[in-house]
Design brief:
Order of helices and strands: EHEHEHEHHEHEHHEHEH
Strand content: 15-25%
Number of helices: 10
Shape: globular
CATH class: Alpha Beta
Distance between the termini: 14 Å
Structural class: alpha/beta
Number of domains: 1
CATH superfamily: Aldolase class I
Low-confidence stretches: none
Helix content: 40-55%
CATH architecture: Alpha-Beta Barrel
Strand order of the largest sheet: 1-2-3-4-5-6-7-8
Bound molecules: 2-phosphoglycolic acid
Number of strands: 8
Largest sheet: 8 strands, parallel, barrel
Oligomer: single chain
């Protein structure tokens, strides 16, 4: 059976109101239900998850969180655990996003979060990516270290509950000057498969979808999926624009 493409929307700290979140989610869900070849995942702010969960019907559009604690049920004011997310019916968690790394999260903490996520039967969407890309090739060893350190605690069994999103920082967000080219993405998707194969073996590596994220829109989505050789997309800004995101869903569904 053909593997479904995974199209993830990362809403970040938006929208401002539950009313807007519900309206946006409804439209994305409607489009998801018309698709057969993609799995849509919306990673919404924590505060909207239970309301959005009540709108979910079927499996075409799943919900994810954008962060989680690495700890278990105990005294951690302001934190949310993997068990809480799981019991609420959430299936995915973004971990290691560059914006959280910029707030101080390092590979050690991310590794603990990956363990907490996967042992609670949630799927971790692990983000990796270099800050700059220069001719020295340092970005290759940088990405390798990120992956190996972030996956230091995951078991072979749980690695099937993992998605890796390649998000080069220089191509992410509204201040980016250059958007990655499909060939840049292809290079790293092959590299990530190689790193996983060397560490976990070919059978396991084959099962881990590698996605691309960074300034994805309706104009470049197809090229990333086809020429970039990735199994899906992690979409930031464009996931808040319903016409653009649903167009990306349609494009991915046709591939
Ligand atoms: P962007 O963000 O699509 O707005 O560049 C992607 C991300 O941060 O996941």
């Amino acid at each position: 059976m053909k593997q479904k493409k995974i199209i993830i929307g990362n809403w970040k700290m938006a929208p401002d109101s539950l009313r807007e979140a519900r309206a946006l989610f409804q439209k994305i869900k409607e489009m998801s239900r018309k698709t057969r070849n993609i799995q849509t995942v919306i990673c919404a702010p924590f505060i909207y998850l239970s309301e959005l969960k009540a709108l979910v019907t079927g499996h075409a559009c799943a919900l994810g969180a954008q962060n989680v604690s690495n700890e278990k049920n105990d005294a951690f004011t302001g934190e949310i655990s993997s068990a809480q997310l799981k019991n609420m019916g959430i299936n995915y968690v973004i971990v290691g996003h560059s914006e959280r790394r910029a707030m101080g999260e390092n590979n050690d903490l991310i590794a603990k979060k990956v363990v907490a996520i996967s042992t609670n039967n949630l799927t971790a969407i692990l983000c990796v990516g270099e800050t700059v890309r220069d001719d020295s090739g340092d970005y290759i060893s940088f990405i390798k270290t990120q992956i190996l350190e972030s996956l230091a605690g995951i078991t072979h069994k749980n690695i099937t509950r993992l998605v890796i999103a390649y998000e080069p920082l220089w191509s992410v967000g509204k201040h980016t000057k250059h958007i990655a080219k499909p060939e840049d993405v292809l290079e790293i998707s092959i590299l990530i498969k190689k790193i996983l194969t060397d560490k976990f073996g070919k059978n396991i590596a084959e099962k881990v979808p590698v996605l691309y994220g960074g300034s994805v829109n309706q104009k470049n989505a197809r090229d990333f999926l086809v020429e970039g050789g990735v199994a899906g997309l992690l979409v930031g800004r464009a996931s808040l624009q319903v016409e653009i995101f649903t167009e990306i869903q349609k494009i991915a569904n046709k591939i």
